[in-house]
Write a structure and sequence with these properties.
22% of the residues lie in helices and 31% in strands. It is α+β, with helices and mostly antiparallel strands and 511 residues long. A 6-stranded antiparallel beta barrel has the order 3-6-7-10-9-8. A 6-stranded antiparallel beta barrel has the order 11-12-13-16-15-14. It is globular and about 80 Å long.
């Protein structure tokens, strides 16, 4: 009797386990999505190239014809047009403005006596992009579409579409644009972490305004940092770089195109070349797809990247001078990330990491340099809990760090589309300065970068905004609320140390 009960229990357990595994597999298959891609769905371009279910490559000797055939229909040519612009670099002047200030206003004086104005002529350029969903989402480089007024996308089959920008992020040098189409071929995401040094890869794009071009090479290095990427304010320290280095030939126009493996899957976005001449000289660089797909997903869902910050100022441990290592009791052969400073309001400090610790792993992956650390952290958003392994006094410790956003909290960062178009770093005027200037409050235009203020006005860094459309603003939040969704705004304010109130009309609409 007991034997029957045991057998019955075993059978029931086995059936239950199989049911759970089947149900779990079905649930994962139906719900595992990333930036518009669902697992288990194979685009027609892969089937046409001879790939089997789940993207398995065709059987037989490995060559490049099948992955090329699968990828070519999903790589597009992006042509950009930037309209001519009237610009002026004149600085505000102290009183009196000029010797003829009673006769002419500043603009008339500049026109008559050599004001530093001019016209930037219309510009046209081109690059590449990768279709990542059948309904027309395309990933490319930020520098391909930056400042463009018109975008035209041409598919491999010569069909042409107008495109709109969904979102951009110069820190990663990535952008998402969209065309209105359906049933498009698209590239499946691969896993850039699986790439090995010496592995074959293919670069696909539209170099030098040629038709679709495929080149082959090997992965020659990973986690390269070149100091190219900068944020909106031009700060290179905020740039995220962990490039895949290859020797596949890449030239101007390849930017934004696909780097694929021999399975025909996307493993990187081609972005840069190392060249003393501006043309290919042996090495090219691609953004790993494991970074790109997270950025793309954020841009589609939120309009801006949800970037998590660890909160550590660091240097590669291998780069520390021997005398510093001896002073800090660090082995001379130590590798990892040396924490030079850990701000008390940051995520790392809250988790227990301190100045002098050596970070060895992030999310279980070993990090030996800053590019690898950035590459790992960039995959997470504020609020995500990430295990971090570090060494202190020769002892290894593991803590869970809850990443924060740039503002030091865990909130989702919203895209302030209209304010972003101004193209400036904003700062609330503190009460002491406000009293000194004799105003109730205001917002400092701390730094002007690319955007409406730079393109349409002569405004300079340090301008203090008092009103938007005659509505008083005393904080950055009030300025954002006042700008709102307005297509045009008039900014009123002053320059500390200069006389008079200046007004700048701005057009923010895309029309």
């Amino acid at each position: 009797m007991k034997l029957k009960q045991v057998l019955f229990t075993v059978i029931i357990s086995a059936v239950t386990a199989l049911s759970v595994m089947w149900g779990y597999g079905k649930f994962i298959k139906n719900n595992n999505t990333y930036a518009g891609q669902e697992s288990g769905i194979i685009p027609s371009n892969y089937k046409y190239a001879g790939f089997q279910d789940e993207g398995a490559p065709p059987t037989g000797a490995v060559d490049f014809t099948a992955p090329s055939a699968a990828a070519l229909p999903a790589v597009v040519h992006i042509k950009t047009k930037t309209n001519a612009k009237q610009v002026s670099n004149s600085l505000p002047r102290t009183r009196p403005n000029n010797p003829f200030s009673d006769l002419f206003d500043d603009d008339m004086f500049n026109q008559l006596f050599g004001g530093r104005g001019g016209v930037i002529p219309e510009q046209r350029a081109s690059g590449s992009g990768v279709i990542i969903s059948e309904d027309g989402y395309i990933v490319t480089n930020n520098h391909v579409v930056d400042k463009a007024d018109e975008l035209t996308v041409t598919l491999n089959n010569k069909k042409t579409y107008k495109a709109k920008v969904v979102g951009t992020d110069p820190s990663y040098d990535l952008a998402v644009i969209k065309i209105e189409a359906a049933g498009l071929p698209f590239l499946l995401y691969g896993n850039s972490d699986d790439l090995k040094i010496g592995q074959w890869v293919l670069a696909i794009g539209y170099p030098l305004n040629l038709e679709t071009t495929v080149t082959a090479g090997i992965v020659s290095a990973k986690a390269r940092s070149l100091g190219l990427n900068k944020d909106k304010s031009g700060d290179s320290k905020a740039g995220v770089e962990s490039f895949i280095q290859t020797d596949a030939a890449v030239n101007q126009g390849n930017s934004g195109g696909a780097l694929i493996n021999t399975d025909g899957k996307l493993v990187g976005i081609n972005s840069a070349i190392a060249s003393p001449t501006g043309s290919y000289a042996g090495y090219s660089y691609a953004i790993p797809v494991n970074i790109a797909k997270k950025v793309v997903d954020d841009l589609i869902k939120f309009g801006t990247v949800q970037r998590g910050y660890l909160g550590v100022q660091f240097v590669n441990a291998s780069d520390l001078p021997d005398e510093v290592k001896k002073k800090e009791s660090i082995p001379l052969s130590a590798e990892g990330i040396f924490a030079q400073d850990v701000p008390t309001d940051g995520a790392a400090y809250a988790a227990g990491i301190r100045k002098g610790d050596i970070i060895k792993k992030v999310d279980g992956t070993e990090v030996t340099n800053g590019a690898e650390l950035q590459g790992q952290i960039s995959r997470f958003k504020p609020g995500d809990k990430v295990p971090v392994t570090y060494v202190r006094n020769g002892k290894e410790n593991i803590v869970t760090v809850t990443l924060k956003n740039k503002s030091g909290n865990f909130d989702i960062v919203k895209a302030d589309a209209a304010v972003d178009k101004l193209g400036a770093e904003l700062l609330t005027l503190d009460s002491k300065k406000a009293k000194e200037y004799g105003v109730n409050g205001g917002v400092i235009i701390k730094k002007i970068h690319d955007g409406a203020l730079n393109d349409q006005t002569r405004m300079k860094d340090g301008f203090v905004v008092l009103k938007i459309n005659d509505k008083e603003v005393k904080t950055v939040d009030e300025l954002k609320a006042a700008v709102g969704t307005n297509k045009t705004v008039t900014i009123s304010g002053f320059y500390p140390g200069y006389d008079g109130v200046y007004e700048y009309p701005i057009t923010l609409s895309e029309e």
